[in-house]
Amino acid sequence: MKCSEIIKNLEEWAPKEIAWQKDNVGLQVGSADRNINNILLCLDLTSNVIDEAVEKNCNLIISHHPLLFHPLKKVDLQKDKNSRLIEKLIKKEINLYSEHTNLDYTKNGVSFELAKILELKNIDFLIKSDSNQYKLVVFVPQSHIDKVAEELFKIGCGVIGEYSNCSFRTKGEGSFKGSEFSNPSVGKKEAFEKVDEFRLEVVLDSWKLNSAVKVLKEVHPYEEPAFDIYTVKNQNSNYGVGAVGEYDDYLPVSEFLSLISKKLNAKGFRYTKSRNNKIKRVAVCGGSGGEYIRAAIKSGADAYVTADIKYHDFHDAEGEILLIDAGHYETENPSLNEVERRLVMFLENKEKIKIFRYSKSTNPIIFFNN
């Protein structure tokens, strides 16, 4: 199987278009046309990760954090660590693919997996994305309504939350009169015609619009299909920031902190006092989520689990919410569970490609205990 097929599958779930605009996600090093032997998953790329990939005959490494985050100005093998990693990947003929903030912002991505490993239920986004969808309305003769709808569904139109193939259809009558240069598929040129038509409506993500219009024109029977495009400001059910969920019963704070330590394998973490002695509703954001503390409080959460929190943020949150900095690596590493699960499902009965998790930690932070 080619690398491009694996990338396509992953990006149908976590599309590059939802990533932070300054992020650099996708194929970092290698060729999308390369046939893949095995796959190694990791949070960060290091020389040791490449060594393990070689050992396990993996010629595709999928990392969360991009190796090439900033523009590459030179390849200095003597002074630059990243340059040496790039050289090593190329010499060993290994592809590197990274899904970073697109995995952060997608449903069942980084924050959802963090919420699941903390055993939360009824999980939803802390902040849902909005204003990144369109509604496409097209007028189709009755004979072609199902074909047009089917082709739009194939490219991802009509997805609302956990439902696909969503559309609305209204029957009506269309009219037109072609010029002497027209070539109508129904009726005659220069004649006023009336046709039974359907108004077909579907929602779609903004980055699918060009493909949808192209498909529409290819399958629509009319020489000049009539369609409208509307901006939709609705919240998007499938993309957003952070996650929030709850427990069936209240947990004492001490029990909740122990759960975090155990489930995230966190050897030490920082937290501040809470307004409550018990925890039921919890907000999370894998990685650096300090900017969403107010959103967590507004959501009614008793606790907020994230990483990279500033000193003054702890001051501001004290007494309002149990604020926990559980570590960047610790809060993002669970996301590899879902990446692995989806790859296993995709490759099942197709290829003898094995999927491995890097056997060690790439966390550079060491805790000192006196």
Which helices and strands appear, and what pairs or packs with what?
Layout: H1 3-13, E1 26-29, E2 39-42, H2 47-55, E3 60-63, H3 81-91, E4 95-98, H4 101-104, H5 110-117, E5 121-124, E6 127-130, E7 133-141, H6 145-154, E8 168-177, E9 192-205, H7 209-219, E10 227-232, E11 235-241, E12 243-252, H8 253-263, E13 270-271, E14 278-288, H9 293-298, E15 303-307, H10 311-317, E16 322-325, H11 328-332, H12 335-347, E17 355-357
Parallel strand pairs: 2-3, 2-17, 3-4, 14-15, 15-16
Antiparallel strand pairs: 1-4, 5-12, 6-11, 7-9, 7-10, 8-9, 12-14, 13-16
Helix pairs in contact: 5-12, 6-7
Descriptive account of the structure:
Helix 5 (110-117) crosses helix 12 and helix 6 packs antiparallel against helix 7. The strands form 4 sheets. The chain has a 6-stranded mixed beta sheet. It has helices at 3-13, 47-55, 81-91, 101-104, 110-117, 145-154, 209-219, 253-263, 293-298, 311-317, 328-332, 335-347, and strands at residues 26-29, 39-42, 60-63, 95-98, 121-124, 127-130, 133-141, 168-177, 192-205, 227-232, 235-241, 243-252, 270-271, 278-288, 303-307, 322-325, 355-357. The protein has 12 helices and 17 strands. The chain has 3 domains: 3-100 and 334-357, Udp-n-acetylmuramoylalanyl-d-glutamate--2,6- Diaminopimelate Ligase, Chain: A, domain 1 (3-Layer(aba) Sandwich), CATH 3.40.1390; 110-128 and 240-326, NIF3 (NGG1p interacting factor 3)-like (Udp-n-acetylmuramoylalanyl-d-glutamate--2,6- Diaminopimelate Ligase, Chain: A, domain 1, 3-Layer(aba) Sandwich), CATH 3.40.1390; 132-232, Alpha-Beta Plaits. The mean pLDDT is 95. It has 370 residues and is of the alpha/beta class. The longest helix has 13 residues, at 335-347. The termini are far apart. It is globular, with a radius of gyration of 25 Å. Strand 15 (303-307), helix 10 and strand 16 form a beta-alpha-beta unit.
